[in-house]
Amino acid sequence: MGSSSSTYRPKYVYLDIGGRIQKVAFSKYCNSRDIMELFCIATGLPRTPYKVIPVTTGQQTEKEELFQNLLAQVIEQFSRVFKIDELKTDVDNHLAMLEKRVELEGLKVAEIEKCKSDIKKMRDEMAARSTRTNCPCKYSFLDESKRLVPRRDVPSYPKYMLSQETIEALRKPTFDVWLWEPNEMLSCLEHMYHDLGLVKDFNINPITLKRWLLCIHDNYRNNPFHNFRHCFCVTQMMYSMISLCSLQVKLSQMDILILMTASVCHDLDHPGYNNTYQINARTELAVRYNDISPLENHHCAVAFQILAQPECNIVSHVDKEQFKRIRQGIITLILATDMARHAEILDAFKEILDKFDYSNEEHVTQLKMVLIKCCDISNEVRPMEVAEPWVDCLLEEYFMQSDREKSEGLPVAPFMDRDKVTKPTAQIGFLKFVLIPMFETVTKLFPEVEEVLLQPLWESRDRYEELKQIDDAVKELQKKNESLAIGSKEK
């Protein structure tokens, strides 16, 4: 056999086959099977397993000894070749094992990717739900969260001063809330806080007050009734009652701040669908607040989300104890606007009316609850031309809800059903059984405002009763005409 150099020369083996020397050549690239083939071809033997057995004799010629050494080398090469095959088998097995592991790892990666995909889908669905607009009632706190970002353009709003005529009109229930644009209403609200001394007494930064009012405006929805104009209407009536009843003399400035701020915030982010709908439709709000005043709880939460922003925190300079009292006071008043609690609140106030004591904190709290209730539903106290458009707005919102309730198979209140209610029927019962009894109770404590607050309600009740009589007469006439028409056809 040739030397084991790195050349490509073939290697030779000389075999003695039956006394005949056979020369066998091996390529560098021969494997064990090739070697077997060559041996079988060279020897003429069948392709069966064989062994190479070196034969030694006592006396060997130099040529035989050389041949014997070459044969030993062949045996060594065979051994190496067979070991390579074993090694190849081991490598193949190891590769198969690695391939299996790669396959398993690949499956794990696929599972991980699937999980990532599922998580992304869940996040997308949550994002879609948070911005869903097809149902304005099913929303979360973060809905339209951009509204909670305070606007920075406060220097542009407004740059004019209120006229003396406007300032005087603001203190009266006869103020026409339909004549004003949003920026003008914001300016009027700003004036109220300054005029009542709240800005000075609570060290409110005037720019912070502007930002807060802008943020409040942005967080009222464009509903037919429960919108920013309604917020202004309620707050303006509260401002009027503070003036008419001389409440600044009888209550603390903190109570005045609570009354005004609760009025401003009392319907924040109202969706236009009442608590009955929220509960029957099992909306997110109803679930979150366990069917207990879902909307009012939401209004409170949004109010304090806004106040939590330093740019809008009008009570940032009060101490912790004062803030706690202000917060609790605002929450109490906003929750009192839930009409489901009307009888409970009014009855509790009637019980303390004869012995009312302004130094009694519980008495004052009961009074503030009744005051905000009065302001919240005070439209009929205003002149007819100011009050009547609000009835149209309210009925529009009612009909929007009842139509939705019908489409969703939910119960519909008769006073909200467009097929059953009319403007007179809607207002007569409300005036007779809700508004007039409540304002009569309040005027017992403040008799000086009976003419201003009660007289318009009585007049409104009488007017709607007349309208109802006219409607009833028209309906009766229509029935007679229909019966006559049917009779003439039968003849």
Pick out its properties.
mainly alpha; 491 residues; single chain; disordered N terminus; two-stranded antiparallel ribbon; 18 helices
Describe the structure.
This protein has 491 residues and is mainly α. Helices cover 63% and strands 3% of the residues. A two-stranded antiparallel ribbon has the order 1-2. Helix 17 packs antiparallel against helix 18 (450-490). The longest helix has 69 residues, at 62-130. The radius of gyration is 47 Å and the shape is elongated. The N and C termini lie far apart (136 Å). Residues 1-6 and 129-146 have low confidence and may be disordered.
Whole-Å distance between the termini?
Answer: 136 Å
The number of distinct β-strands equals: 2
H-E string: EEHHHHHHHHHHHHHHHHHH
- Kindly report the average pLDDT value: 84
Structural class: mainly alpha
Helix content: 55-70%
Report the C-alpha radius of gyration, rounded. Answer: 47 Å
Shape: elongated
Number of helices: 18
Describe the largest sheet: 2 strands, antiparallel
In quaternary terms, these chains amount to: single chain
